[in-house]
Amino acid sequence: MVSKQLMAASTRPIILAILARGEDYGYSIIQKVRDISGGRLEWTDGMLYPVLQRMEMDGLIASKWRAAQGSRPRRYYRITGPGRQELESELSGWRSVWKALSVLSDPVAVET
Known about the structure:
63% of the residues lie in helices and 17% in strands. The chain is of the alpha+beta class. It has one domain (4-111): Arc Repressor Mutant, subunit A. Strands 1-3-2 form a three-stranded antiparallel β-sheet. Helix 1 (4-20) crosses helix 4. The longest helix has 25 residues, at 81-105. The radius of gyration is 17 Å and the shape is globular. The mean pLDDT is 93.
């Protein structure tokens, strides 16, 4: 299970990465996160929607309501230009963290 701190730190970049592939709606985002993490990341509506709202207020994403055939309207989110820039910045930071952790977890590299 992923710690709450790590989950909180990774939420925005994960959402931005999903939306960089195309617009999507909340429940679908939750399902994609569960699928790509092999079930290790379990997001809820109560966690996701406030984050989406903050990201929209920050200008990283935009949304619009769209009628869905045979069901109620859904709010679709898309990444904005500033959101793409934020995603690149976040990915760069996460790559740096991953590189440091990889080096530190390699016993040979730590000894040298």
